[in-house]
Design a protein that fits this description.
Number of strands: 8
Strand order of the largest sheet: 1-2
Mean pLDDT: 79
Radius of gyration: 27 Å
Distance between the termini: 32 Å
Helix content: 55-70%
Number of helices: 25
Shape: globular
Low-confidence stretches: 1-37, 319-328, 373-384
Largest sheet: 2 strands, antiparallel
Length: 615
């Protein structure tokens, strides 16, 4: 109110002559920080150190390709030196410019966003040290013979540069490197209402960029440069690429949940520049070289990066096609997030069903590798083997689609929302074993390639994670309108909830079935890709059991029912997949899963029947 009064006193003639002076949206914009004279803040010492570290990393990243990533250096597909140097130094130049302009928080965000991809990019470049012949990097090197090359000094410079970029971002991740009590640190204590815009744009364009990064970047007519998608490439490239995709998604969420909108905008800007540095050199190679052709699906990553940059500079609250009040009710914001979460849940469920109905792997005649005796026997069989690992995607998909549809019904969306906050875990629980089966099969023979089911399963994992994040954000906005300061722990509910946690430990740690030829993944012993899904489900159930004792009755019950549904997907492993092993029988994990479901349902009814206050 005081800021609005000061604005009116500073511009009396405009208020008297402007016919839109009484417009609530215009009044809201008058009180926005952009209307006030910008305040130049000093750069914290740690931020200045981070810029120096990032500058050193940019120099190493730019010098690596110039010195050669292989020895002897076969040369790149085109003269990429200028493009690589420009993309390497852009984040540092932007961060330095923001510091010079007195905007250290934005500069810290740029370094953080650009550094998030450092680990994945470093692992990608490690492929030149493992086997440079199969590195899919035409902008850096294209082999000219089958003679294995040595690792060039440029490889280690590239890796060191990415590590320094990651370190620079880590230095300023907390309060832009400022000391508590300073003006820079105070910026992180203020919420200016821009989180929804940054989170929405970040998730939308970050998800689009992640999808593009999963696709093959090019097709090649050169026998020495193989063109494979991320999941059919070498193990090192696959791990590095997946780390990059995860970093993009995490950065998008971090930008929308950061304490300062300036920091969040910087993260999106740095993230967008980092994605462009990863995809543009390869796309330019596809346009500049006759025997290379850019895959159009990789442009999704470019569009996502441009969208993140646009979101970073978009005026706060500006919607050109809609005139609405600047300060919207909390309920309306939550309703929109419920709608978004519901749509994402339905889409994830559809992707999961497609992951089940399409092949995880297919038998093909290999064209880029010698055919072994194993390959010949597989080809002579003429059939794609039956897969069981992706069968649990069906109940997981049904769960998400059902919850998604309920979230579209506004009167009950708020009550159903906690189910999705934990229920999305069912997709990783069911999908990771499917991806493990595909990876195992493709690793046994050159005649086996991953099928469309892998792509749909990965998409289901990404979209379900986004749905869970949006549901969690909706819950946070919803709690802003409810006074929970006087709530106490529901000690009566704590007893059955603790029992559910104990049962969950056994349910996910022990196998659900036993057979002589079957070895189940475990939490510690026999740790595999599917084990991550087990750990995620166990952590989710544990967190839900603890949160329910402090939640409102209806929300606590919804959380517990959602956890029971996740365990229910796990308990279906024996009846739906036991045919994969001869003479399979029920093991302790199935019985403990049933006990966990019973404990969670009992806890839900206790939460509804016994609570500590009237909320």
């Amino acid at each position: 109110m005081s800021s609005r009064t000061r604005s009116s006193e500073n511009r009396p003639s405009r208020r008297a002559s402007d016919p839109a002076a009484d417009d609530p949206e215009a009044a809201g914009r008058d009180t926005a920080p952009a209307a006030e004279p910008p305040t130049r803040l000093p750069a914290p010492l740690l931020l200045r150190v981070a810029i120096i570290v990032a500058a050193c990393g940019a120099v190493l990243t730019a010098a690596g390709p110039l010195l050669g990533v292989l020895d002897p250096d076969p040369g790149a597909a085109y003269s990429s030196g200028f493009v690589l140097v420009l993309l390497a130094v852009l984040p540092v130049v932007l961060a330095g410019g923001l510091v010079a302009a007195g905007r250290p928080i934005g500069a810290a965000g740029v370094l953080t966003g650009a550094g998030l991809l450092g680990l994945g990019q470093a692992v990608n470049d490690l492929q030149f040290a493992v086997d440079g012949l199969v590195a899919p990097r035409p902008e850096l090197a294209v082999p000219t013979s089958l003679q294995p090359p040595h690792t060039g000094v440029g490889t280690w410079l590239l890796i060191a540069g990415h590590v320094l970029a990651l370190a620079a971002g880590a230095l300023v991740l907390v309060r832009a490197g400022s000391v508590p009590g300073t003006a820079v640190a105070a910026e992180f204590e203020e919420d200016n209402g821009q989180r929804k815009q940054l989170l929405g744009g970040g998730l939308a364009f970050g998800g689009l960029a992640a999808l593009g990064l999963l696709m093959p970047a090019y097709t090649s007519d050169n026998a020495f440069l193989l063109a494979r998608d991320l999941l059919n490439g070498s193990t090192v490239v696959m791990v590095g690429g997946l780390l990059v995709v995860v970093a993009v998604l995490l950065g998008s969420v971090l930008a929308g949940t950061a304490g300062s909108a300036k920091f969040g905008r910087g993260i999106l800007a740095g993230l967008g520049l980092a994605v462009l540095a990863a995809v543009l050199p390869v796309q330019i190679a596809g346009m500049a070289v006759d025997w290379l052709h850019t895959d159009w699906r990789s442009y999704w990553a470019t569009a996502g990066a441009v969208g993140m940059l646009a979101t970073a500079v978009w005026p706060a609250g500006y919607v050109p096609w809609r005139r609405a009040h600047h300060d919207e009710p909390v309920e309306r914001n939550a309703n929109r997030l419920h709608l978004a979460a519901g749509v994402l849940a339905i889409v994830a469920g559809v992707f999961a069903i497609l992951g089940r109905t399409t092949n995880l792997f297919v038998v093909e005649v290999p064209t880029d590798a010698p055919i072994s005796q194993t390959d010949i026997s597989i080809l002579l069989s003429g059939v794609n083997p039956e897969t069981y690992a992706n069968r649990l995607l069906v109940p997981a998909a049904v769960l998400l689609i059902a919850v998604g549809v309920l979230l579209l019904i506004r009167p009950i969306a708020g009550v159903v929302r906690p189910v999705l906050s934990v229920g999305w875990v069912a997709i990783p629980l069911a999908g990771l074993p499917a991806l493990e089966a595909a990876a195992t099969a493709t690793g046994t023979s050159h005649a086996i390639q991953s099928g469309a089911g892998v792509v749909w399963t990965v998409l289901a994992l990404l979209v379900s994670t986004a749905a869970g994040l949006v549901a969690a954000v909706a819950g946070g906005i919803e709690r802003e309108d409810v006074d929970l300061t006087e709530r106490t722990t529901n000690t009566i509910l704590a007893a059955p909830a603790a029992g559910a946690v104990l049962f969950a430990i056994g349910a996910f740690a022990l196998p659900t079935m036993r057979a002589e030829t079957f070895v189940a993944p475990g939490l510690v012993a026999n740790f595999r890709l599917a084990s991550w899904g087990l750990w995620l489900a166990l952590i989710a159930v544990t967190l839900v059991a603890g949160a329910a004792t402090r939640s409102r009755p209806s929300r606590a019950a919804a959380l517990l029912f959602g956890a029971a549904a996740v365990v229910g997907v796990h308990v279906l492993e024996y009846p739906m997949t036991s045919a994969r092993a001869e003479d399979a029988s029920i093991a302790a994990g199935t019985w403990l899963s049933l006990a966990c479901i019973a404990a969670l349902i009992i806890s839900a009814f206790v939460a509804l029947a016994v609570h500590t206050d009237r909320r």
